[in-house]
Amino acid sequence: MSHHLAHISADAGSRFLLVGASLHCGIQQVARDAERNRRRDLGAVEALGVELIETRRVLASSRAEISAVQRDAAALGRELAAANARAVRAEADLARLARAAQRQA
Asked: Which helix (H) or strand (E) holds 105?
């Protein structure tokens, strides 16, 4: 019986060691997966940081373009007002000439 008990004990011990080794491997795999996920997430965060920097650069560029367009629009508005004033003066001059021509006729 003691031989049988020793055999069962050895079998149980080897199974215990096998379960322990499997558990250890499982824990290591979980740790590797966690590290891989951490690195992937860190890469995603870095990519978002780069994208944020690019977005800010585009925003600054867009603001500069908007300012330039606003300056151009203001200049065009002034030119249009000056052209309108010239047209009003030309119409007034034309009306005076027409009246003068009627008086001489």
From this structure: none
